[in-house]
Amino acid sequence: MNRRIPETIVPNPEHLDPHHRWHRPLQAPGTTQVDFEERVDFRRLHNYRLARTRQALAKSGLGAVLCFDQYNIRYVSSTVIGEWARDKLIRYCLLTGNGEPYVWDFGSAARHHKLNCPWLAEDHCRAGNPGMRGAINPKVGLFEAAAKEIKDILVQEGVANLPVGLDVCEPPMLFALQKEGIDVRDGQQAMLDAREIKSHDEITLLNIASAMVDGVYQDIAEALKPGVKESQIVGLASKRLYELGSDCVEAVNAIAGERCSPHPHNFTDRIIRPGDPAYFDIIHSFMGYRTCYYRTFAVGRASPAFVTAYKRAREWMDRAIELLKPGMTCDQVANAFPTAQDIGFESEMAAFGLNFCHGLGVGLHERPLISRLNSYKDPYELKAGMVFAVETFCPATDGYSAARIEEEVVLTPDGAKVITLYPADELPIANKY
Questions:
Q1: Is residue 142, in this structure, part of any structural domain at all?
Q2: CB 3.0 to 4.6 Å from 427: which of 41, 138, 173, 310, for a disulfide?
């Protein structure tokens, strides 16, 4: 017998109270729950995310949304089976405008959900396997079986005559859905609409995730000495994050010396040397909520050219953050960033990702995304409750040094509040001599 599931939250704005507490400092409690103060209310978080999805679905004209994107599955169903599933395209989730989430999961994970996820109906937790990215030959028929099961649910819930939004999938899955007569549309846009405004609980989780990285940068500053490898810093950061409670260290970029310009977006076994520029990006999540958090250091000493580059990057950063407030539009913020030519690139496409802002939440890149590449064509309005990662990059005139800074900010009714607190107003010099 199925357990009773919570009453459906209809897509009505009055049910979408994000429970913000703008009159108080942004909260960053510890990583465990306690009985003597309110921290994160996970049931409230689940209800908010599901209500946001239903509202976006109602506005989209779609009858249902089918998600293979792990960020969307967690947002809709509040289920996850870890980093293992990130690139498998094996888990999927269906939500119709009239129903509760269905989740198809890898083997015994479905039974785990039945036992441990009381917010899901037991018969909505199902085992599924479309083929593990081709490892099981499509001729076995798993895609067709999955598509038929999905079609049957759409019929039962009265939305089979409406389009279905799909975020990502393997091509055979798309073909199988179409063979069932399902009108497949882009569902990622509806999901990004849903994820755009963060609740108090989401902001708290993002703030906790940032606090972890604050501490890791202190460890990096102390360890950043000649003779240490980039890869060792990556190992140090990853270990410390998991000790602090991270549920996924997605990536740690570590770039030093002559590797700093142009930005390679990776790490190697390069040995740190005296006077090196060095910058790092820490991407991890706490309860599914991510960081994208760069800091730049000089090792022991800094050249005048490096100091100048850092000052310019900081000026661009501060100018952009000043403009991040409700009512502004993305094109206005994009004006704060240098052109591609200002930093030595031939086009905005070639320079993309060096000076821009991106939304941050359960996904690393959420809406809005602000840059000179796209924002003049899509002058999106900013709203309270959005969370951004703001990134700047400035190459130095010496031809190899470069400054890379990133701050995460929450848009409150009064403007942007920075939640990445490791000091970066001036160039940090690690182990100065």
A1: yes
A2: 310
Question: What pLDDT does 85 receive?
Answer: 83
Calpha distance 356→369 (Å, rounded)? 8
Q: Are the C-beta atoms of 116 and 108 separated by less than 8 Å?
A: no
Question: What's the per-residue H, E or C state across 302-370?
Answer: CCHHHHHHHHHHHHHHHHHHHHCCCCCEHHHHHCCCCCCHHHCCCCCCCCCCCCEEEECCCCCCEEEEE
pLDDT tens by residue, 360-398: 999 999 999 999 999 999 999 999 999 999 999 999 999
- Identify the CATH number of the domain in which residue 297 sits: 3.90.230.10
Count CA atoms closer than 13 A to 423's CA, side-chain side: 7
Task: Show the domain range for 404.
Answer: 200-430
Whether 8 shows a pLDDT value over 50: the answer reads no
What is the arithmetic mean of pLDDT over 22-42? 93
The domain tally of the chain equals 2
φ, ψ for residue 68, nearest 5 deg: -110, -15
- Percent of the chain past pLDDT 90, that is, above it, reads 92
**One domain, residues 207 and 95:** no
Whole-angstrom Cα distance, residue 211 to residue 39?
15
Tell me: pLDDT of 15 over 70: no
Q: For residues 174 and 168, what is the distance between their CA atoms, to the nearest angstrom? A: 9
**Mutual angle of helices 188-195 and 70-77, in 10-degree steps:** 60
Same domain assignment for residues 164 and 290: no
Final residue before a domain boundary, out of 134, 166, 195: 195
Residues 6 or more apart in contact with residue 347 via CB below 8 angstroms:
340
Q: What is the DSSP letter of 383?
A: -
